[in-house]
Amino acid sequence: MTLRPAAALGLVLVAGSAMAQSAPEPKVPVVHSAALPGVDMLPTDPRLKPIRDRLCGKNPCRNGVSFTLKVSGKPDYTFKNDFGGPYLFQGAIFIFPGETLHFEAEIGPSGLTDLAYAAQPKHPERAIAVTLAQRPDSAGGYASQLTVVNPFPQALAFSVMKVQPGGSADVAADICPVSPHGTGRKTWQVPISEIVISNLGIVSNDAAYTCGH
């Protein structure tokens, strides 16, 4: 992913280590604001509230975001804004700590189609569930965990960009596809303030069974 300028999205992008073959570099959509020319921002950036209608369109947006993260050896990190931004934007999923989101999709000849946010899934057999949570870990710290539930009979692959408090962002390595009708989990021993999931697609089931082994 190429971002401009160096502090694009209001973030510092750090090159990640080699990712699993099934998880290419994220295709993270950004927004260009007339108020901040030359600066690329995630569509969930609170500075984009004045163009909420343009961003959301037919896609539902949050009415706001509020969460507190535990940070080992430091004061809690509290985040709050009254914008929130879209759950889904140009095929990418945006999720904050404490959220469980559902997205319905179809499997077409070339992979997933018609991905859409579903506040209350009407078709559980094609509803992807995504959760981002922070939990105490065995070392006495606080780990962040992303959980993805795959409703399909084929393995589900995707890429991840994670954002930490303070704005640094990097590409998450070793993201394995989720097995058919399975649940995939990825844990980081650092606080995560936002996750962007992109490149969702169907891959061979062997890719899920052999990844990480």
Main beta sheet strand tally, sense and closure? 6 strands, mixed
Number of strands: 17
Strand content: 35-45%
Q: Output the number of helix runs.
A: 2
* Secondary-structure element series: EEEHEEEEEEEEEEEEEEH
Give the rounded overall mean pLDDT. 85
General shape: globular
Helix content: under 10%
Low-confidence stretches: 1-22
Class computed from helices, strands and strand pairing? mainly beta
Query: Strands across the major sheet, in which order?
Result: 1-15-14-17-9-8
Structure in words:
- The chain is mainly β and 213 residues long.
- Helix content is 5%, strand content 42%.
- It has two helices and 17 strands.
- The strands form five sheets. A six-stranded mixed beta sheet has the order 1-15-14-17-9-8. A five-stranded antiparallel beta sheet has the order 11-10-12-13-16, with no helix packed on it.
- The protein is globular.
- The two termini are 27 Å apart.
- The model is unreliable at 1-22 (pLDDT under 50).
